[in-house]
Amino acid sequence: MDPAPEHPASPSSRLRARPPHPASRGALPAGCTALGLTEGRDGLLHVPVAAARQPCPLVVLLHGAGASAAVTMMLLADVTEAHGLVLLVPESRASSWDFLRGGYGPDVGYIDRALAHVFARCPIDPARIVLAGFSDGGSYALSLGIANGDLFTHLIAFAPGFAAPPMQVGQPRILVTHGTRDRVLPIDRCSRRLVPVLRAGGYDVEYEEFDGGHGVPPDVVRRAIGWVTDG
C-alpha cells in the first residue's frame, strides 16, 4: 500500500486503549494542559467546554518531523471549541515517528499511554475517534490508523508522503489533502500515487487537492473537521 517498504506485521503496532462503556465522566477542566506523562518530549491535551455535558469527538493530531506539540496544536486551534473536540497532540520520542526510524515500538507505546489517560478522564464519543497528522505525521496517521481501524473511525492525512501499514484492521474512513505546489513532499510522488492504492484496498477515501505548498490552509482544516463532525 506504499511507495516505501512495508514493515513486517507486528503486535507492536497495535493499540490497546479503548474508551470505557459507558463513557467516563469528565475529570479534567476545560482548556489546554500538558499531558504530564513524562519529562522532556510529552504532548498537549485540549478539553472543550462541551466535555462537561456530553461525550465529544477525539482528534489525535500527529506532528511533522522536528515539530512540537505546541506548534502542531495551532493547526486546529480555531476549530477545537467550535466543534467540541477533545484534541490530543502527543510528541514522538525522537524528532520523528518510530516507523520512520526502523519499526513500530516506542511511539506506539506512548500514544497508547496518552489514549488511556484521555479515555479515563474525558467522555469520548466512540463513533468519532480520529487519527490525523501533517507531513510525516500524516504518513504515520495512515499507517498506524489502518493497523488500528477497530479503534480509529476516521483518518486524516495532511500532505502525507506514503502509508506503510503493517496490517489492515477495520475500515476507517480516510481523508487526504495535499497542496499542488508542495516541494517538500511533491504531490505527484505522494498523494496522487497513494490515494488510488488506498481506494483499491477497499477504503472510503475523500481526497482534496488545493493550490498551495507544504502546509494546511485554514479552510482545508475547517472542511476536514466538518467531514468528521457533520458526516
Q: What is the CA-CA span between the terminal residues?
A: 26 Å
Query: Helical segment tally?
Result: 5
Q: What spatial order of strands do you see in the largest sheet? A: 1-2-4-3-5-6-7-8
| Radius of gyration using CA atoms only | 16 Å
Strand content: 15-25%
Number of separate domains = 1
Corresponding CATH superfamily: Alpha/Beta hydrolase fold, catalytic domain
* CATH C-level category: Alpha Beta
Which descriptor suits the 3D outline? globular
- In percent, how helical is the residue content? 10-25%
Please tell me the CATH architecture by its name.
3-Layer(aba) Sandwich
Write a brief caption for the model.
The chain is α/β, with parallel strands linked by helices and 231 residues long.
Question: What structural keywords apply?
Answer:
alpha/beta, single chain, 5 helices, 231 residues
List the helices and strands and how they pair.
Layout: E1 31-34, E2 43-47, E3 56-62, H1 69-73, E4 86-90, H2 106-121, E5 124-134, H3 136-147, E6 154-158, E7 173-179, H4 191-200, E8 205-210, H5 218-229
Parallel strand pairs: 3-4, 3-5, 5-6, 6-7, 7-8
Antiparallel strand pairs: 1-2, 2-4
Give a structural overview.
This protein has 231 residues and is an alpha/beta fold. It has a single domain (46-229), classed as 3-Layer(aba) Sandwich (Rossmann fold). The chain is 24% helix and 22% strand. The protein is built from five helices and eight strands, in the order βββαβαβαββαβα. The protein has helices at 69-73, 106-121, 136-147, 191-200, 218-229, and strands spanning 31-34, 43-47, 56-62, 86-90, 124-134, 154-158, 173-179, 205-210. It has an eight-stranded mixed sheet, sandwiched between helices. The chain is globular. Residues 2-9 have low confidence and may be disordered.
